[in-house]
């Protein structure tokens, strides 16, 4: 049976990687209960300081690939495509923003700027100097961008075995007219889950607690992972690429909203 995967990239210390594995049952996209006791468990994050270590994040990516293979065996599925909620590549040096990020800007969708490879070299050195000088890890400079290094490693590794798409759940919710309340705000998860349930058929009726068995971690992570899996599960005729393919594009669903 074919399966579709969504990954909400996270690397916080001891946090399990939020992963959703889904199958189509008729017109309903049903997640497998990956958080059930007895199912394989995803790798844990190591924190921002470790994200500076290329070998460490490459091992994390290898562990993620091995975990996905374990899920295929456990649930008797074959993964066809993966949606990853992270930038797939660095910004080109000549650009102020990636083309995909400019496309989001034009629609009023906010996101962090992805640095170029040269800019990340400077960021790495700045962060490593901070640590060498005894600076606290929770005060690392550019902490809101270091997780992107993990995303790059995941794309590089997982693309060897599967087709991978860059996705951005906030943009997905924008296309579903469900981005007015951010998922971090009261009522945000409920509103967004209701919107995605209308197009995926799951859950019916919408119930946030069901996300707890579908994905490891908080319900807002589960929502993002499931939304990412949905984009992966859509055929090319049902999704639109914002940006410049192949590595500077964010995929969103086709809807009635103009893009």
Describe the structure using short key phrases.
alpha/beta, 7 strands, five-stranded mixed β-sheet, two-stranded antiparallel sheet, 259 residues
Can you give a write-up of this model?
With 259 residues, the chain is an alpha/beta fold. It is built from nine helices and seven strands; from the N terminus they run βββααβαααβααααββ. β6 (239-244) and β7 (248-253) form a beta hairpin. α2 packs across α5 and α7 runs parallel beside α9. The mean pLDDT is 94.
| Number of contiguous helices | 9
SSE pattern, N- to C-terminal:
EEEHHEHHHEHHHHEE
Shape: globular
Return the structural class: alpha/beta
Oligomerization status of the protein chains: single chain
As a whole number of angstroms, the C-alpha radius of gyration is 18 Å
What is the CA-CA span between the terminal residues? Answer: 33 Å
Helix content: 40-55%
How much of the sequence lies in strands comes to: 15-25%
Spatial strand arrangement across the major sheet: 3-2-1-4-5
Query: Which blocks of ≥5 consecutive residues have pLDDT under 50?
Result: none
> Major sheet: size, sense and barrel closure?
5 strands, mixed
Mean pLDDT: 94
Number of strands: 7
């Amino acid at each position: 049976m074919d399966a579709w995967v969504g990954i909400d990239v996270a690397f916080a210390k001891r946090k399990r990687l939020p992963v959703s594995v889904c199958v189509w049952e008729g017109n309903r996209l049903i997640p497998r209960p990956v958080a059930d006791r007895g199912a394989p468990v995803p790798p844990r994050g190591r924190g921002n300081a470790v994200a500076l270590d290329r070998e460490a994040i490459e091992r994390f990516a290898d562990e993620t690939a091995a975990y996905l293979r374990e899920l295929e065996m456990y649930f008797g599925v074959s993964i066809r495509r993966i949606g990853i909620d992270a930038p797939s590549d660095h910004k080109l040096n000549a650009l102020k923003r990636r083309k995909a990020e400019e496309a989001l800007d034009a629609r009023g969708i906010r996101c962090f700027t992805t640095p170029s490879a040269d800019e990340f070299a400077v960021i790495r050195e700045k962060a490593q100097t901070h640590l060498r000088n005894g600076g606290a890890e929770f005060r690392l400079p550019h902490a809101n961008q270091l997780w992107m290094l993990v995303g790059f490693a995941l794309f590089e590794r997982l693309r060897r075995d599967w087709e991978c798409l860059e996705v951005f759940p906030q943009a997905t919710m924008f296309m579903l007219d469900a981005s007015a309340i951010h998922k971090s705000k009261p009522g945000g998860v409920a509103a967004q889950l209701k919107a995605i349930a209308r197009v995926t058929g799951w859950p019916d009726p919408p119930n946030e607690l069901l996300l707890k068995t579908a994905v490891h971690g908080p319900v807002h992570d589960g929502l993002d992972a499931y939304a990412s899996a949905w984009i992966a599960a859509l055929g090319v005729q049902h999704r639109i690429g914002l940006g410049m393919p192949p590595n500077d594009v964010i995929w969103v669903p086709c809807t009635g909203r103009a893009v």
